[in-house]
Design brief:
single chain, 68 residues, mainly alpha, 3 helices, DUF2281 domain-containing protein
Length: 68
């Protein structure tokens, strides 16, 4: 985020009434939580894929590629 965007967002927040600020805070918390969940799901999928493809990747026919 650039300083200009950050400043524009802060200006908008300063003009909101307190009850709306609470809603914004809840929404930001929701987005952060969702991002963390998505990151965890991506890592889990990568681990599952690695385990599933190990048999395909680690075989004598492909050993020549391991030496590249």
């Amino acid at each position: 985020m650039t300083k200009t965007h950050e400043q524009a967002l802060l200006d908008k927040l300063r003009n909101l009434p307190p009850e709306r600020l609470a809603e914004v805070e809840d929404f930001v918390d929701f987005l952060a939580h969702r991002q963390a969940e998505e990151r965890g799901l991506t890592q889990a999928a990568g681990q599952l894929a690695t385990a599933a493809f190990t048999r395909v990747w680690d075989n004598p026919a492909d050993a020549a590629y391991d030496r590249l």
